[in-house]
From TrEMBL:
InterPro entries per UniProt: Cys-rich_flank_reg_C (IPR000483), Leu-rich_rpt (IPR001611), Leu-rich_rpt_typical-subtyp (IPR003591), LRR_dom_sf (IPR032675), LRR_TM_domain-containing (IPR050541), LRRNT (IPR000372)
One cellular-component annotation, GO: cell projection
Annotated ranges, domain LRRCT: 263-313
Protein origin, superkingdom: Eukaryota
Stretch forming the signal peptide: 1-32
Name of the featured protein: Reticulon 4 receptor-like 2b
Gene3D superfamilies: Ribonuclease Inhibitor (3.80.10.10)
């Protein structure tokens, strides 16, 4: 471009001059980089990490796609702290103590937010993440969070990864995650959670893995996993579980990896629903070592067999309320026919059926529930001498023979008559004749009585 073009520009030269002026003289605030930060183009990145910053720096370009503010000393995040279009925001390793509601409301295209390793962040406002409807990954690990507001994750429909591990959470509100319909990974390990209620995971219909290990979980509602039909990985090891409802595991049909080790499992009658679920499930599972009753301490719950539960009441298949009946298989009846229990054993069995809870199938009334978490649970089922004498089963024999027992024949008494197994079971047609014969006999008796009375 010649000097004359600037002094006496032609129409075409004037347009070129204006373009050059806009490039050279464009407002400095748009391309300026905040102090103590380094900026990179394509994609526009602002890196202010490890600069001992106490506040979010001003002047971050509005078109910044990635903003890195980790490993500083930032203490507060206010509603006016961010006013740019950012997709990735890292704030981990700071000293954040407070996040104002709506602090991220201007970040409409934010996809990843990392607030992890902020040990002073012990409380969150309910609307802290308002407006982040495109957020896909949220990190809040190691923040010493004691509780989460019930509406904290409201409208975060795009969230897929949620990291809440290694905090101090004692409980989780019902429907806390109900809006997270696309969540696939939920990390809650390393907290202090004690119970899992019926609606704690409601809405997580696409969850793939759930990590709950290293907590203090003592009780799991039988419907706690009812929406987790796509779950493939479940970690519950290193908790305080003595029982786990079999119904809760039936709701996770797609489970592939299950870790339940490191729990004080009780292998009395209350373990039967979980044991039955393991008989049908073909998954990768950890060991489940029994700690009670004393006769089964050190055994693996998965490899117990039906004879080990021979004296236990069974739930009525037609009732979720837990009406019980006593069912024995052919093998069980055979063993009792060879080793008939004494009358004292029968009395002990009758007492056990009254005191042992068929959890979770029994309908427990609210007035009988523990009044506080510190109250001890009912005493566990202890094996009688006859039950302890039942033959043991190796794991290999368990997997080779499970499901072969004939459960169609019921024996409602412990002492079956000799040769009971060889007696043919009456068919339905022959059973149908008996009521008719009884009816005819009754009518005949009544006719004869009237004849003698009235001549």
């Amino acid at each position: 471009i010649t000097t004359s073009a600037f002094l006496c520009p032609s129409p075409g030269g004037l347009s070129l001059w204006l373009i050059l002026w806009l490039v050279v003289m464009k407002p400095g605030g748009v391309s300026a980089c905040p102090k103590l930060c380094v900026c990179y183009p394509t994609p526009m990145t602002v890196s202010c990490q490890s600069q001992n910053l106490t506040i979010v720096p001003a002047g971050v370009p509005y078109d910044s796609q990635r903003v890195f503010l980790q490993n500083n000393r930032i203490t507060e995040l206010r509603a006016d702290s961010f006013g740019f279009e950012t997709q990735v925001l890292w704030l981990y390793g700071n000293n954040i103590t407070w996040i104002e509601a709506g602090a991220f409301s201007n970040l409409r295209v934010l996809e990843e937010l990392d607030l992890g390793d902020n040990p002073s962040l012990r409380h969150l406002e309910g609307g802290a993440f308002r407006g982040l409807e495109k957020l896909q990954s949220l990190h809040m690990h190691r923040c010493k969070l004691a509780s989460l507001p019930h509406d904290l994750f409201h409208k975060l429909y795009s969230l897929q990864f949620l990291y809440l591990q290694e905090n101090q959470l004692h409980f989780l509100h019902d429907d806390l995650f109900s809006d997270l319909v696309n969540l696939t990974h939920l990390f809650l390990h390393g907290n202090r959670i004690r119970t899992l209620s019926e609606n704690v995971f409601r809405g997580l219909v696409n969850l793939d893995r759930l990590l709950l290990h290293d907590n203090r979980i003592r009780q799991v509602n039988r419907r706690a996993f009812r929406d987790l039909g796509r779950l493939t990985i479940l970690y519950l090891f290193n908790n305080s579980l003595a029982e786990l409802p079999g119904q809760s595991m039936k709701d996770v049909q797609g489970i592939q990896f299950l870790r339940l080790n490191g729990n004080p499992w009780s292998c009395g009658c209350e373990a039967r629903p979980l044991w039955e679920w393991f008989r049908k499930a073909r998954i990768s599972s950890s060991e489940l070592m029994c700690t009670s009753p004393s006769q089964r301490r050190g055994q693996d719950l998965r490899f117990l067999r039906e004879l080990d539960f021979a004296l236990c009441p069974l739930p009525d298949p037609g009732s979720l309320a837990g009406t019980t009946t006593t069912t024995f298989s052919t093998k069980t009846r055979w063993w009792f026919s060879k080793h008939k229990p004494a009358s004292s054993s029968k009395a002990q069995y009758q007492k056990s059926t009254e005191t042992v809870k068929a959890f979770p199938f029994s309908a427990v009334k609210p007035q009988y529930l523990p009044k506080s978490p510190v109250e001890s649970l009912p005493s566990k089922y202890e094996l009688s001498e006859d039950e302890a004498a039942l033959p043991k089963l190796d794991p290999e024999e368990y997997w080779a023979n499970y499901g072969n027992e004939d459960s169609s024949i019921r024996c409602f008494e412990l002492e079956c008559p000799p040769g009971y197994d060889n007696q043919p079971f009456p068919s339905s047609s022959s059973l149908a004749i008996i009521p008719s014969l009884l009816c005819i006999l009754s009518l005949s008796t009544a006719t004869l009585s009237l004849h003698f009375l009235f001549g």
